[in-house]
Amino acid sequence: MPSMNDQKLWGELESIIVSYRRMVRAELHGRWEKWPIDLEKREMYEVIGALLARQVTFSVDFAGAPEIWNHHLAPVILRAMIDNYINLAWIFGDPLDRSRKFILYGLGQEKLQIEHYKSQLQADGRNEDNDPVVKSRESWINSQRYTFLTEVSIGSWSGIDTRTMANEAGCIDMYNYEYQAYTAASHNMWHHIGKYNLATCPNPLHRHHKAPIAPSSAPDLDYLFEVTNLVGRTFKFFDDKTAVAVDIPSAFDRLVQDIDDLGMTLEKTSDSERPNISHEDDG
Question: Which of 5, 162, 233, 238 is deepest in the core (most CB within 10 A)?
Answer without folding.
Answer: 238
